[in-house]
Amino acid sequence: SVAICLFTADLRVHDNPVVRAAVGAADQVVPLFVIDDGVRDAGFVVPNRAAFLADCLADLDGALRGRGGRLVVRRGDVVEEVARVAEETGAGEVHLARDVSAFAQRREARLGHMLDRSRRRLCVHDSVTFVVPPGALTPASRGHFGVFTPYYRKWSEVPVREPLGAPDTVPVPAVRSERLPSGADLADGDPSPALPRGGEEEGRRRAAAWLDGPVTRYADRHDDLAGDATSRLSPYLHFGCLSAVELVRRATAVGGPGAEAFVRQLAWRDFNRQLLADRPETAHEDYRPRNDRWRTDEALVAAWRRGRTGYPLVDAAMRQMAEQGWMHNRGRLITASFLTKTLYVDWRVGARHFLDLLVDGDVANNQLNWQWVAGTGASTRPDQVMDPLVQARRFDGRGDYVRRWVPELAGIEGGAVHRPWLLPPEVRRRLDYPDPVIGLAEGRERFHRARAGR
Ligand code: FAD
Question: Boundaries of each Photolyase/cryptochrome alpha/beta domain copy (predicted)?
Fold first, then answer.
């Protein structure tokens, strides 16, 4: 007998219920990845994620070869390709991880119909990309939790299953495969210069190093922008090179306030996913409509994108993302608040730009965090405006983060780097750095007026 293991956002062999179930169900398994036209047409395949994905596929192929198999790669419409592979190999069942985006839900439904017609079985596995799947926890009143704290209280009481080992062998039948794609095969354009390397092996190496020490200091240090004291595991979680279940179990075993705070962040993934599963339209529409009449100003948006707003902390964070395809969470909060509140530009404009660059760019986490900051989402303080200068004092007091990412300002010592407009005119003139594109008080007042409907 033959089973298809359809990889999606679970590009790993360790703790992968999809792989284990397929291997357990049949004599032979087709470990299949489809380069899906639908994902490309949705504009989701950008050079940074394409480069990382190519690494992931090569790594997964290596892991499968080490177990006597290999990865089978096809290109086209995912449902049609699965149907073809099932015909060619006589596979009787298809195993797949459950996922939440409108795209993933449609894919699952279409696969179900197609397989039904040919009397094949679709087996959808819940605890692959989530720790606690959407729908498992519901408030008394409604279909999903709209506030994180009560969700998290329940989430942390759910027993987390034992992680599964990787299978020893994966016997694969003879079946046609395309060659492994490079990043350039998947997306046009150049990736950012300093991307992390993708793949399960690299992800596991980083997770082990993280859990072996730095995690214990996470609670105190995670917001220190220059300290770079977060795990940077988000790209590996996004592509499923790492299992969130396994990370929670291993962090819990480490224990202490740092590990606890880290596990709490992982709960945010599930929180956003249960919200998107219930309200898939919130990928594009306000979760809590605020009737914003967003401003359009291409020049201001361009300055924000390029990291030339004249606010050094905002610009540093935007440039970090352009360089590394990753931005510190504190930077994401500050830059998103600046765009949506100080400039009063539609959160969708910012969310799109983040999705164009972030290696961890993820519909649930990105769109719902943007909404959270813009005050159209699940935040309980929707009208809070972050002041980049206050943020600078608290999270980059010495200015090291700004000097690292804004070379024009690298020669200015200490916290003065956050207010280049106060430098003596002769120093100021020598810097190729813009004046602020907007006054902070002006932006804040306009935002509050707009939200008050005046
Ligand atoms: P750590 O601090 O080490 O946290 C561990 C893990 O917990 C992360 O890898 C991530 O999987 C999860 N996590 C942490 N914070 C959040 C959060 N607020 N929401 C959901 N999960 C979280 N995260 C993404 O994975 N993809 C995105 O596209 C994304 N877009 C964002 C956009 C905005 C405007 C904001 C404010 C946040 C966004 N985040 C996104 C959440 C968060 O910023 C990143 O997950 C985090 O910075 C990744 O770095 P890390 O792995 O070092 O995180």
Answer: 1-130
In the reported structure, the alpha carbon of residue 273 is separated from the centroid of ligand 1 by a whole-number distance in angstroms of: 13
Q: What is the DSSP letter of 364?
A: I
What residues are in contact with ligand 1 under a 6 Å CB criterion?
222, 230-234, 237-238, 262, 265-266, 268-269, 272, 329, 332-333, 336, 354, 358, 360-362, 365-366, 369-370, 373
We find that the CATH architecture of domain 298-451 is Orthogonal Bundle (1.10)
* Interatomic CA distance for residues 353 and 327, integer angstroms: 13
136-160+200-278: CATH class: mainly alpha
Closest-lying ligand 1 atom to the alpha carbon of residue 272: 20
Compute the distance between CA of residue 239 and CA of residue 381 in angstroms, rounded to an integer. Answer: 31
Q: How far apart are the first and last CA of the chain?
A: 68
- H-helix or E-strand containing 94? strand 93-97
Q: What fold does the segment set 2-128 form as a domain?
A: Rossmann fold (3.40.50)
Q: Does residue 180 contact residue 62 with C-beta atoms inside 8 Å?
A: no
Alpha carbons 280 and 294: distance in angstroms, whole number: 23
% of the chain at pLDDT higher than 70? 100
What pTM value is reported for the model? Answer: 0.98
Edge-first strand order for the sheet with 93-97 is 72-76, 28-36, 2-6, 93-97, 121-125
What pLDDT, in 10s, does the model give residues 129-139? 999 999 999 99
Residue nearest to atom 52 of ligand 1 (CA): 232
State the ipTM, two decimals: 0.99
Residue 330 C-alpha to ligand 1 middle, in angstroms?
10
- Residue ranges of domains in the chain: 2-128, 136-160+200-278, 298-451
